[in-house]
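For concreteness, we quote verbatim a single protein encoded this way:
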Amino acid sequence: MKVWKPESQLVGADNIVRTPLNAIVNYLEMALENKIDETTRDILAKAHKASKSLIYVIDDLLNLTKAEAGRISSFKEEFDLGATGMLSYPIPLRC
């Protein structure tokens, strides 16, 4: 009996998943550049934001499946997270 494993189906599916979604994001951006009424602009802006968020979720999911399949190697690198501007307070560097 063959068992379906989601990770085996998603490994290598990067372009199959990302390409159509990136096209949607690009079409939404082009539509937002045109002169449109505020209601339509609001709807398109929400769709654009949701699509961009979905790209991040899909990227994380695809990276996770690659890691589970052993196709991603990790590395250790020190950096200053406070310098990224993502934090309102500095964090000391430790490993």
Q: What stands out?
A: The chain has a mean pLDDT of 78. The two ends are 45 Å apart (CA to CA).
